[in-house]
Predict the 3D structure of the following.
Amino acid sequence: SQKIEQNSEALNIQEGKTATLTCNYTNYSPAYLQWYRQDPGRGPVFLLLIRENEKEKRKERLKVTFDTTLKQSLFHITASQPADSATYLCAQRDGSSNTGKLIFGQGTTLQVKP
Amino acid sequence: DAGVTQSPTHLIKTRGQQVTLRCSPKSGHDTVSWYQQALGQGPQFIFQYYEEEERQRGNFPDRFSGHQFPNYSSELNVNALLLGDSALYLCASSRSPSEAFFGQGTRLTVV
């Protein structure tokens, strides 16, 4: 079955540095991957969608890459700020249906220290 | 636009009880999906409603049921609550398969 794996260990970095989060997928080649931000006790907030034919996508300080050979997406936050501290979720669409059902990774928690 | 709204925000129930959670989708959205998120885990798909019918279901027991109303709002019902049902329940609305807007969630605690 489809599976999404994210590094479950928290990522701690210093303010101003670039944070890089990893998402690996198996058993299915998604047409696109999505990244969400989730604050404690809140619902996920959509950040970026990258399609399989897009190697890279940017939005302000965010950059996402999609490597179909490695079956991996990388999520970068440049010039990180304490306000970027949150859990980041990677998701792919369920390939067995066309309903938009999402399959999520377990998320990686980012802590940016001032 | 109010976005996706869920109620209540928090809920405490006793084992064996029944609970109903509610969701109002974003304006213009006709599809509602429900997810369960245990602490430290990613959201897990419960089911999706479209045109008042359950269109797809995840790997959850029949104790989990739902409904969608003509105005596209939705309810999630859980019967015979177990301690393991304690989680953040998320509602997501969409009008196309490539998008999902989530509500703030309902934190359910079963004691």
User: Anything to note?
Assistant: The mean pLDDT of chain B is 95. Chain B touches chain A through 31 residues (CB under 8 Å). The first strand of chain B starts at residue 5 and ends at 7.
